[in-house]
Amino acid sequence: MSLNCGIVGLPNVGKSTIFSALSASPAEAANYPFCTINPNIGIVNVNDLRLDALTEIFHPQRTIPASVEFVDIAGLVKGASKGEGLGNQFLSHIRETGVIAQVVRCFDDPDIIHVANTIDPASDMEIINIELALADLDTLAKRRERVERSLKAQAKPEQKLAEIALSALRKIEPSLENGKAARSADLTDDEKAAVYDCRFITMKPQLYVCNVDEEGMRSFSSGAANAYIQTVMKRAEEEGSETVVICGKFEAELAGIDDPEEKQAFLEELGLKESGLSALTHAAYRLLGLRTFFTAGTDECRAWTIHAGDTAPKAAGVIHSDFEKGFIKAEVYSYEDIARYRSEAKIKEAGKYRVEGKEYVVRDGDVVFFKFNV
Fold first, then answer.
1. What is the pTM of this model?
2. What is the pLDDT of residue 327?
């Protein structure tokens, strides 16, 4: 399972710079609007210290981390939902992503053009969120027409489904009309399922990425967020979302360092414990309710991504569909136990090695060996 994260924002807020730094994939970046036309896509390995520790313990032939797909989507502008700035094309790209990372410029630099000629994070976020909501309103209107026709033409079972969908649309519409996200509507599980195929952009989880300069990054890491960051954090908190603070320029320099010790020293220079990549991917994981389990041995140590609440057979299916079909049992221990005891033999001696069945819910950090028969 690969996490898919779309990077959006106004033109010239640093999306392409951050994308290039995070993915080590060159994305065109220039000091003018609509530099990015087609979305840039980069597959990024997820940094996980637990996987590093497992590699030290087992000395496998290969180590495979989980991955994240980042999509750098061209800058949106006011009127994008009506086609301004190739908006319709760009909005269709956003619909394909699992989570949205909205980049907001939080630094002053007269040499870098701002599309509105002023640095105002609150206004920038409002423009993007309203355009996404307006795009969803258009989708909602088209879906409502189809639903209303179904109520007249379909048999009783189909009419019942149409009634559920119409109820959901009626709850979502006021939110969108007020520039708020569809996800803010109080929907039942049945209502969510009924409008799932609408693929509302604002139904997707969204986090905010503050792009700061090095001075802003140093201040933030020392506990003193500048006024721009505070504005973004307040908006995110109101929406029940998260804020990640990244210095695009710093991340670009960090991406060019291969030596781990030198990279760590570079991070410490700004008072950081992890890179912007790690902070962003971990925040996205939390928003999507994702978890990581591991398989470990002398052949391979590997991180696998599942959803919170997935049972052992479901997790086995992430590795191979045959594992889920022929699931027999799962042999499990926690990452904390292998980190403590340093070998599976000692984990067994301590009584920490477990055998779990089909109902077991896999936990974040579990190390699992599946038994199956096909």
1. 0.87
2. 98
